[in-house]
Design brief:
Layout: H1 3-10, H2 15-25, E1 31-36, H3 42-56, E2 61-66, H4 69-86, E3 94-97, E4 102-105, E5 110-115, H5 122-125, E6 137-140, H6 148-155, E7 173-178, H7 185-195, E8 203-208, H8 218-225, H9 231-236, H10 251-257, E9 270-274, E10 282-289, E11 292-300, H11 304-317, E12 325-328, H12 333-339, E13 344-346, H13 361-372, E14 377-378, H14 382-393, E15 397-398, E16 407-408, H15 411-418, H16 423-430, H17 433-436
Parallel strand pairs: 1-7, 1-8, 2-5, 2-6, 6-7, 9-12, 11-14, 12-13
Antiparallel strand pairs: 3-4, 4-5, 9-10, 10-11, 15-16
Helix pairs in contact: 2-3, 3-4, 13-16
Pfam family, one: Terminase_3
Organism: Paenimyroides baculatum
InterPro entries: P-loop_NTPase (IPR027417), Terminase_L_N (IPR035412)
């Protein structure tokens, strides 16, 4: 068998993919949900259809939306190149314009990559940053991470029919791709009406599992079968029931964190700190008594030496040794740990303790905070309470398609969402490092 024939064989579509293509190509269905477990070939069939439309019809405009534009650039272009390779289509048929995040084809067709994160200004101006954009179809990837607000307004931009399709009975297409997530708007908008048999004629749901994809390796399937719950149900079995809330900490739990306790009754045990550069974000010091926060101090626009002096003064005030101080060791934080010898520093992107299945140690600390949240108490003023709630409300649990590592919302996305860095949250989760490393902070020779 030639390599060309082998590639064609590899791209044989599954029955579910064929059904999806039928909906994408009909003249009735305008909103389609491709739902299912990780590895069930949802994205690749949508991109196959989009690529086909771009090559077949001159001037066709396809938008591909993902919440994180960096992920879009890295993931979507790679997938499109894979589809073209399997179809023996040369990569030279398009050129990528990085300035506009657009793939431009020789025949005038375009694939426009769009950042689906809702920015602070977007709600007031109804996504004015989209300008006069008009497209022929939209594919939303990892749609459970995209707000309905964005989906609804973006769909109003699907109104462009190129001259090459003037005599074709084409219905504008909006294609949403997701892993099951009962906490997203997709559950009530698509899934529940589908299960009840109440889905309108212009909408369709195609649900699949990775076991229906014959092209996956047995090693990948085995890894997905061995996932822990609730990820196994969601990413391997493709179930829409029983998933934990996508938000890292539920609103009820956040409200219960803050208690009107008398801080004078608690004996401080350790201090955690999030260190900022001068003029950049906030520096936050947190004084703990085991799992109770008894004091939160915020500093802005101060130099490193002042931060070192502050922390030394706090250690002295509460009669704590240096090894009871923990802070981030990235960037300017490393200077603090150098000046306060024996203090504990964390590199946020370091390997998780015991090599547990988290993206990095900082993510591991956030999940630890969520695990212990019902046992944690915070004593602080109302303004600080509201800021902590605001930051935690912007942080979600994330497991990407094909990746079983536990993740959280990136700092960049948090900043875009609330127009601030999660300084309080970072300082809080650092305080739980001693819960992960039981021997750290108990003794130190210096």
């Amino acid at each position: 068998m030639s390599k060309k024939d082998e590639k064609k064989k590899q791209f044989l579509i599954t029955p579910k993919q064929k059904l999806a293509l039928n909906y994408m190509q009909d003249s009735t269905t305008s909103e389609i949900l491709l739902s299912g477990s990780a590895g069930s070939a949802k994205s690749i069939i949508a991109q196959f259809w989009g690529l086909k439309m771009c090559l077949k019809y001159e001037g066709f405009r396809l938008a591909i939306v993902r919440k994180n534009i960096t992920d879009t650039l890295n993931t979507v272009i790679k997938s499109l190149d894979e589809v073209m390779e399997l179809q023996n289509i040369p990569a030279s048929v398009y050129k990528f314009d990085r300035g506009t995040s657009t793939l431009k084809f020789e025949n005038g067709s375009e694939i426009i990559l769009i950042n689906g994160a809702v920015l602070p200004s977007d709600r007031n101006n109804q996504l004015a940053r989209l300008g006069s954009l008009q497209v022929s179809a939209v594919i939303y990837d990892e749609t459970n991470q995209i707000e309905y607000f964005f989906y609804e307004i973006m769909n109003t931009r699907i109104r462009f029919i190129p001259p090459s399709m003037a005599n074709i009975d084409y219905v504008f297409k909006s294609i949403a791709i997701t892993n099951p997530d009962i906490n997203s708007w997709l559950y009530s908008y698509f899934w529940q009406p589908y299960v009840k048999g109440e889905l309108p004629d212009y909408m369709a749901v195609i649900h699949s599992t990775l076991e229906e994809n014959p092209h996956l390796s047995e090693a990948y399937k085995k890894r997905m079968r061995n996932l822990k719950e609730p990820q196994r149900s969601r990413l391997y079995l493709g179930k829409w029931v029983g998933q934990s809330n996508q938000q890292l900490i539920e609103p009820r739990q956040l409200n219960n964190l803050f208690k009107p306790l008398n801080k004078d009754l608690f004996k401080p045990t350790h201090i955690s700190a999030d260190i900022a550069r001068m003029g950049d974000d906030k520096t936050v010091y947190i004084v703990w008594s085991n799992l109770t926060v008894v004091d939160i101090i915020t500093k802005s626009k101060q130099d490193t030496q002042q931060t070192v002096n502050d922390l030394k003064a706090l250690l002295k005030k509460y009669n704590l040794p240096n090894h009871k101080l923990i802070c981030d060791k990235d960037n300017i934080g490393s200077v603090v740990t150098d000046f306060i010898r024996g203090s504990v520093g964390i590199h946020n992107n370091a390997v998780p303790i015991n090599r547990e299945n988290y993206q990095n140690i900082k993510t591991q600390l956030y999940y630890k905070f969520a695990e212990l949240v019902d046992d944690i108490s915070i004593i602080c003023d109302l303004a600080t309470q509201e800021q902590i709630k605001k930051e935690f409300n912007a942080i979600q649990r994330i497991i990407s398609d094909g990746d079983d590592k536990f993740k959280i919302t990136s700092k960049k996305d948090i900043r875009a969402s609330i127009n601030a860095s999660p300084d309080y949250c970072d300082a809080l989760v650092y305080g739980l490092y001693f819960k992960l490393q039981n021997n750290v902070g108990e003794w130190y020779i210096y």
